[in-house]
Every structure is written in structure tokens, then in C-alpha cells.
Design brief:
This protein is α+β, with helices and mostly antiparallel strands. Helices cover about 30% and strands about 25% of the residues.
Length: about 300
């Protein structure tokens, strides 16, 4: 196969591992800085240009699109789809998963376990929103936040009101969520490929911190997940329409709850914790499953 890897930094661990795994299996892989690609949107023969040349002859494309460039990155990926290049994850699924509110609404409609979540626009709704999620302590999240940025734990009613008023005062879009105290500052990252959990790790927040993101000093370790957790992760990825996903779960008193479904999950933590060749599993999935011109959402918005 000739594979396009959409990434802004080929030196990142995840990008390096995907390149290694593809080359070890005899594939040609071309790294493309998604922001430097540009498109000719024309009837019958859409094309993508990069550094003065037309990109041609690709069988598949692996999107590693950062959250900050979701809009442009998904447009480039969509153009590949229009050119009958098969994506690892489709553009519609990526955009769906990146919209925190939309993704939670879709998960809730299908009965997936998740924290009590409130969303409001006006300051006079604050007290009722706080009550709706079970009161303080609670978590306030920016809709556009990533890697734990823009996530605040409000431990009292007054603190919750102040934080929410502050975010609303600068017209930030936020979610208000139940705080799952029993999780103890840890979560579970389930790595899903083609409807199966191929690896799982526990992420533990450092002392004094409730966010378990590895970018914020969290540590990772191998964990054995329950059948219910496995099923929840697989269903969540399927609802988003993602072939490859990192599904983040918390262990609550009422079963596993989904915090987020990540369309570009990092490989360093999961490979380090489990010792598994997850990058190789991704390429193997592409070899057996991706067929040019068979994009399910081709032509859809």
C-alpha cells in the first residue's frame, strides 16, 4: 500500500511508530503536514497539492489531526475521501468525536454509561445546572479543551457557581459534570481497533491532582478490564463511527462511565504500559480491512 500519514510532527512517538510499522510490512508511507496541504475543489477530479506537487496514487490515509486543527485537517481528509483514498478513521467520525457535546448526546441516546452532564448558556441557569448533576463537588470543562486543559474541579457550591460564572463571563462553552470521586484520580484508556479492545491501561493522576492525563504528570500501568468495561469501550467507538479509538472510562459505583472517545489516541503510553505493538496492529487492520473507494461516508457532510 501507499499510505499518507497526516501529521504536523513526524518526530512524535506515535508518528514514528506508525512509520516504522508500515515500513516493516513493506508499505510506502508519506508524511504530510496537514496544514501545508491545499485542495483543488473541482467537479469530477478533486485533488490535493503539497509543496507544489499533486498528491496521487495513495491507497489509504492515516489521520493524526490535532484538536487545534480539526476543521482544516478534516477538510483535507474529506478531500482524500473524495479521491477514493480509504481513511483509517473517516472525517465525519473524527468531527463527531471532537465535538464533546455532540458525542455525549450520541452516547446517551444509545444508553452508554456516562457522568451526569449539564449544558447551559445563561448565568441564571447556574444553580439548577449544579443541582442537575448532583451538586458539588463537580467538574467544569471547556468544550474545546484537550489533554486536561480547561478542566476545573469545583469542590463547593460557591466555588462551582464562581467558576461557571467566570467561564460564562468570557463566553466560553462549557460542560458541567458529576465528579466521580470513587475513581480516585484514575481512569482507564481502552484502545479499540476494528471493534475489539486490543490493549488497556490505567492512568493515575499525581498526588494533589484529579486529572490523570499523561501530559499532566499522570502515570500509566497495565490493567485487566471487566467484560462490561470492554463492551462499553467497543460500543462507544462504534457509536462514534471510529475504526480506531482511545476510549477513556472511569470506574464508578454504577459501572463504567465514558469520559471521552479519542479519534487520534497516542501510542506511547499504551505501548509502554502493555508492551504490545499497537502501531503494528493498526497497520495490520488497514491491510485486511481498508478498500479504496469504499468510504462509508463518502460525499456526506
Amino acid at each position: 500500500m501507499k499510505i499518507a500519514l497526516l501529521t504536523r510532527n513526524k518526530k512524535l512517538y506515535s508518528s514514528r511508530r506508525i512509520i516504522e510499522a508500515a515500513e516493516e510490512r513493506g508499505h510506502e508511507i508519506v508524511v504530510i503536514d496537514v496544514l501545508r496541504a491545499y485542495m483543488n475543489i473541482v467537479s469530477h477530479k478533486p485533488s490535493i497539492h503539497y509543496k507544489g506537487e499533486t498528491l496521487e496514487g495513495f491507497d489509504s490515509v492515516i489521520p493524526r489531526i490535532g484538536a487545534s486543527v480539526t476543521s482544516y485537517g478534516s477538510a483535507v481528509l474529506r478531500q482524500f475521501e473524495m479521491m477514493d483514498v480509504s481513511p483509517l478513521n473517516e472525517s465525519v467520525a473524527i468531527v463527531r468525536s471532537r465535538d464533546k457535546l455532540r458525542s455525549l448526546q450520541l452516547l446517551s441516546r444509545k444508553g452508554i454509561g456516562m457522568p451526569l452532564t449539564g449544558y447551559a448558556n445563561k448565568p441564571d441557569d447556574i444553580k439548577d445546572v449544579i443541582k442537575m448533576v448532583g451538586g458539588a463537588p463537580l467538574v467544569v470543562k471547556l468544550l474545546q479543551g484537550t489533554q486536561g486543559i480547561g478542566v476545573v474541579l469545583a469542590e463547593t457550591q460557591k466555588a462551582a457557581e464562581s467558576v461557571i460564572e467566570g467561564f460564562m463571563g468570557v463566553k466560553a462553552d462549557i460542560l458541567v459534570q458529576e465528579f466521580i470521586k470513587e475513581a480516585g484520580g484514575s481512569d482507564i484508556r481502552c484502545f479499540v481497533i476494528d471493534g475489539k479492545v486490543v490493549a488497556a491501561m490505567k492512568r493515575q493522576a499525581p498526588i494533589g491532582e484529579f486529572r490523570s492525563n499523561l501530559h499532566r504528570g499522570g502515570t500509566s500501568s497495565l490493567i485487566k478490564i471487566t467484560p462490561e468495561e470492554r463492551s462499553t469501550a467497543v460500543r462507544a467507538a462504534k457509536i462514534m463511527g471510529l475504526n480506531v479509538a482511545g476510549v477513556d472510562l472511569l470506574r464508578s459505583n454504577h459501572g463504567p462511565v465514558v469520559m471521552e472517545v479519542n479519534s487520534s489516541p497516542g501510542l506511547e503510553g499504551i505501548e509502554g504500559a502493555t508492551g504490545k505493538d499497537v502501531a503494528g496492529m493498526i497497520i495490520s487492520y488497514m491491510e485486511r480491512s481498508l478498500t479504496p473507494g469504499k468510504t462509508k461516508t463518502r460525499g456526506k457532510g
